[in-house]
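Hi R.,

As promised on Friday, here is the backbone we talked about, encoded as structure tokens. Could you run it through your design pipeline when you get a chance and send me back a sequence?
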């Protein structure tokens, strides 16, 4: 059994869990790492049961800005790496830092329970139990689909995109994609190429951001360009998008009802292309269904064999839901620290407008720094514990995000990173992991 005085249990070996494991190992902090699947990678392994991954999936942030600190993505990767490269990257990261051999694979978790002495009991799927001083839940935010009820009685097939794997499933069918998240846009483009008839339904208008501008990944261009006030950036980049994409209404798209960057970015270069070529048609929201017919709010109707719901996910944490609260977005300080339950953390639940891995890394480093200082009895740990309970910073970056479930707890990545850096500097902690050559040479502690 793990030593409850110091051991941390990390649940999950996707990107968030790997970032946490490295941060703990760097500080020689003992930990137990468990993963229900048979290998590293989380949802990026398309063979993992329940994964939302599909064959045409790519990163929506560029390789340049998407790697963990100290372990950049290789130069020979595509600008926007496909799923196979991301999985290879995660496994190379785990191997390079000696994390893989410390993971217990094939170990599911039934529950996490808080004990009277503020330790935590983790009950495994096979009934075995272990006690830990801390638990970091890294079970991911895209395993539990949000499935809305469609009005009426549709006679065809209705599925959430979590079940979608390949464009082969669309051949010979009349397909309706509902929703404009990034996976929904990818799958709509698959339908445009493969289905007999393809339509995408969106309740609101969106700003469609191309993956490259002037031949440069759009996030790199934004990152390296001049710093502007948010209102000016919205105006300048919005004008550029209108020049590049033209009037969206001529393609059947609705005019956005919000300013640029006030929803999760729709980063896709191909939907506009397919709309321009008549491969797919855009429609507004669904009014009702009857038989195989879908009636849209603009008065049009169309017949379909298959409706794919690209309607997103809820942030369920089944192993510890009662401690994480809302299924839509857990109320965690800096999207990582439980405000009410000492020793409970979560990484992988942040919703933001940039690549996630560097944010996971920063959150993991703060968690490890906090745990390390607690073990050593440093005053910084007590100060930070007070902040967890009382500090509620504005991390919107001046943006007014739309009122939707997806944007509950949403943060602007620039404001988020800046604030994490400010906190880390005050506490004397890092916000980025070390390169393998900088790792401690002393043997890593392991839980007895």
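Update: got your reply. Pasting your designed sequence below so it's all in one thread:
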């Amino acid at each position: 059994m793990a030593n409850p005085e110091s051991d941390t249990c990390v649940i999950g070996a996707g990107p968030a869990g790997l970032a946490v494991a490295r941060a703990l190992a760097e500080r020689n902090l003992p930990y137990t790492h468990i993963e229900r699947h048979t290998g590293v990678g989380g949802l990026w392994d398309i063979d993992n049961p329940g994964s939302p991954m599909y064959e045409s999936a790519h990163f929506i942030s560029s390789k340049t800005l998407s790697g963990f600190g100290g372990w950049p993505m290789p130069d020979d990767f595509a600008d926007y790496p496909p799923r196979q490269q991301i999985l290879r990257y995660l496994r190379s990261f785990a191997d390079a830092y000696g994390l893989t051999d410390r993971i217990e694979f094939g170990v599911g978790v039934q529950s996490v329970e808080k004990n009277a002495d503020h330790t935590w009991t983790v009950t495994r799927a096979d009934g075995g139990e272990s006690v830990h001083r801390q638990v970091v839940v890294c079970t991911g935010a895209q395993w539990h689909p949000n499935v809305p009820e469609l009005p009426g009685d549709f006679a065809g097939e209705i599925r959430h995109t979590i079940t979608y794997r390949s464009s082969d499933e669309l051949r010979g069918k009349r397909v309706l994609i509902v929703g404009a998240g990034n996976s929904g846009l990818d799958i709509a483009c698959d339908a445009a190429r493969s289905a007999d008839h393809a339509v995408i339904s969106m309740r609101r208008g969106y700003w469609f951001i191309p993956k490259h501008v002037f031949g440069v990944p759009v996030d790199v261009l934004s990152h390296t360009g001049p710093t502007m006030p948010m209102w000016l950036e919205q105006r300048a980049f919005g004008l550029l998008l209108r020049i590049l994409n033209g009037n969206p209404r001529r393609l059947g798209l609705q005019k956005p009802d919000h300013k640029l960057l006030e929803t999760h970015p729709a980063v896709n270069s191909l939907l506009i292309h397919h709309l321009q070529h008549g491969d797919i048609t855009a429609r507004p929201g669904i009014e009702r269904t009857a038989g195989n017919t879908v009636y849209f709010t603009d008065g049009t109707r169309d017949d379909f064999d298959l409706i794919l719901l690209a309607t997103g996910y809820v942030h369920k944490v089944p192993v510890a839901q009662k401690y994480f609260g809302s299924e839509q977005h857990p109320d965690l300080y800096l999207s990582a620290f439980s405000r009410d339950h000492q020793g409970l953390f979560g990484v992988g639940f942040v919703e933001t407008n940039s690549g996630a891995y560097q944010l996971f890394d920063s959150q993991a480093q703060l968690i490890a720094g906090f745990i390390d200082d607690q073990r050593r009895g440093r005053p910084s740990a007590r100060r930070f514990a007070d902040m967890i309970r009382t500090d509620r910073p504005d991390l919107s970056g001046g943006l007014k995000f739309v009122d939707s479930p997806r944007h509950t707890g949403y943060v602007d990545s620039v404001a988020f990173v800046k604030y994490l850096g400010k906190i880390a500097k005050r506490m004397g902690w890092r916000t980025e992991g070390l390169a393998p050559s900088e790792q401690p040479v002393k043997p890593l502690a392991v839980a007895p």
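One thing I noticed while checking it: The chain has ten helices and 23 strands.

Thanks again,
M.
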